[in-house]
Design goal:
The protein contains 19 helices and 22 strands. The chain has about 550 residues and is of the alpha/beta class. It folds into two domains: about 20-105 and about 175-370 and about 420-460, Alpha-Beta Barrel (TIM Barrel), CATH 3.20.20; about 475-540, Golgi alpha-mannosidase II (Immunoglobulin-like, Sandwich), CATH 2.60.40.1180.
Length: about 550
């Protein structure tokens, strides 16, 4: 760290466990995960070894986009419980020494939000300027598909929505909007939360005049909008007005950012946010759709982001989340032992020079769910994908296959607490993922060779030797190898993972490092000269 002692700030040394509140635990038997259920489950997260709990949105919402369409920034949605339930959760987290981080959408609100309803009721009133309106739309396309402009019933103007038409973009040029947002964040920090994950924060600043895009398709538009002209100004303002007043962490979801653009946002010399939650692992089409994927590309993502940010600012490391198919479905091998695949993938990201984010169920090796009918889809994006495919003449089977390949429902199924399910006593809101046997918390906590136990061992390594596994320099030792991922951490730490289904001979450079070190963690078939399919070896 450039000759200085590493900054062992809690959000660097601790690991993040992401909860999807609808699906974590149902305490009242209504089929929906809730805050009381999360409170009950915090001890399991503590036992795993994570220290930060990030919850997807719990604010008031009509739930068209499962909470990312917020209709009240200072209210708990009744679906999850009450403010008293949330305060009880905070108290239990404090008892267990866990930090709670909330997910908040700053780019848009639900059209049910009182601000938007007031904007419709009085077009000449102050709330009209809380949103972005045009008499004629430009050519921008929504991330979820279709035009990014809609008219509300009884209104002559179009409002901008980069996402679903029920999610109207806020006008951040209006200082009153900014202060409303800052006030809402201070409200939760005063209650005792430890920070925020800022949903799609990189698109809050739009180009002046909202010109047509050279390529209006959703993802190119996203890349064009990320890092708009006033983004840095507003992030510095947010830092000064909110984050610098508390011991908290601000994690910016950064779709469209590359390491260089992200580095400017987390630069300690001009700090705006503490971490960027990047999307390079998300945007690889083959991995997104469960097709074959490029291991060399996979390794290069870690390397590029470490070189871009690692030595100066601080990285997050996110491979799975609530918007993606499960890890073993995206990066796995249908013929391989799924538990071995899950362990190997864990070793690729938990020990990086970054704060690792573990998404609920990945620590069990949970796979994709089974969807046989459009009626089993909940995800608004998948439903839109299905509808657009059908409107273009694709058959029922073709449209469903397209929706199933990308739906976020795979990651949102109820958490399996026991072999029987254990999520709650009612009928779950979303069909559970079929259990292939042993993929549940109770079974795995009792099994010292389980995926859960392997994740716990990785987190223990990280917590006990921060010099090596948190702050140690990162080096990819075999960047061009088509199957082996070997990397060094600090002076002594070495990790080698076989990311393929065939036994691999170890290069001489790796066997030499093995000979000088002691094995501290292993999984699968490993010899002094070879590594079996999806095997893992950690030395120090």
């Amino acid at each position: 760290m450039s000759g200085h002692e590493p900054d062992e700030t809690w959000w660097k040394t601790r690991s993040v466990y992401q909860i999807y509140p609808r699906s974590f635990r149902d305490a009242n038997g209504d089929g929906m995960g809730d805050l009381a259920g999360i409170t009950q489950g915090l001890s399991a997260i503590k036992a795993l070894g994570a220290g930060i709990v990030w919850m997807s949105p719990i604010f008031r919402s009509p739930m068209v986009d499962n909470g990312y369409d917020m209709s009240g920034y200072r209210e708990i949605d009744p679906l999850f419980g009450t403010m008293a339930d949330f305060e009880a959760l905070l108290a239990e987290a404090k008892r267990l020494d866990l930090n709670i981080v909330l997910d908040i959408a700053l780019n848009h609100t639900s059209i049910d939000h009182p601000w938007f309803q007031a904007a419709l009721a009085d077009p000449s009133g102050p709330y009209r300027d809380y949103y972005i309106w045009r008499d004629e739309p430009n050519n921008w396309q929504s991330i979820f598909g279709g035009p990014a402009w809609s008219k509300a019933d009884g209104d002559d103007a179009f409002y901008l929505h980069l996402f679903d038409k029920t999610q109207a973009d806020l006008n951040w040029e209006n200082p009153e909007v900014r202060e409303e947002i800052y006030g809402a964040m201070r409200f939760w920090l005063d209650k005792g939360v430890s920070g925020f994950r800022l949903d799609v924060v990189t698109v809050i600043s739009k180009p002046p005049g909202l010109p047509d895009a050279p390529d209006p398709r959703p993802m190119p538009l996203y890349d064009m909008l990320a890092g708009g002209p006033r983004l840095h100004e507003w992030l510095r303002d947010m830092r000064r007005e909110v984050f610098d007043l508390y011991d908290c962490v601000a994690i910016g979801e950064g779709p469209g950012l590359n390491p260089e653009r992200a580095a400017a946002i987390v630069n300690p010399a001009d700090p705006m946010l503490h971490m960027i939650y990047h999307f390079d692992f998300v945007d690889h089409t083959g991995a997104r759709q469960g097709k074959d994927w490029d291991r060399v590309w996979f390794k290069s993502v870690f390397d590029r982001w470490d070189k871009g940010i690692g030595p100066n600012g601080w990285n997050s490391c996110v491979v799975g989340n609530h918007d993606l198919r499960r890890l073993i479905a995206r990066f796995g091998d249908a013929e391989a032992d799924p538990d071995q695949v899950a362990k190997a993938l864990a070793a690729t990201y938990v020990l990086q020079r970054a704060t690792p984010f573990i998404y609920q169920g990945d620590e069990l090796g949970l796979g994709d769910t089974t969807i046989t009918s459009v009626n089993e889809l909940d995800d608004v994006w998948a439903k839109t994908t299905y509808r657009l495919a059908r409107s273009k003449g694709q058959s029922e089977a073709e449209a469903l296959a397209k929706a199933v390949a990308m739906t976020r429902d795979h990651a949102r199924t109820p958490y399996p607490w026991t072999p029987e399910g254990g999520f709650g006593t009612g009928t779950p809101w979303l069909k559970p993922t079929p259990n292939r046997g042993g993929v549940d918390f109770a079974s795995q906590q009792a099994d010292e060779h389980s995926v859960w136990a392997f994740y716990r061992a990785l987190l223990e390594l990280r917590a006990k030797d921060t010099e090596t596994w948190v702050f140690g320099a990162y080096e990819d030792l075999l960047p061009e190898h088509e199957s082996l991922f070997a990397y060094r951490r600090g002076a002594q730490g070495v990790v080698c993972v076989n990311l393929g289904g065939q036994t691999c001979a170890l290069p001489e450079a790796i066997t030499a490092l093995m000979a000088e070190r002691s094995c501290i963690l292993t999984s699968g078939e490993v010899t002094p000269t070879h590594m079996g399919p999806w095997s893992t070896h950690v030395w120090v």
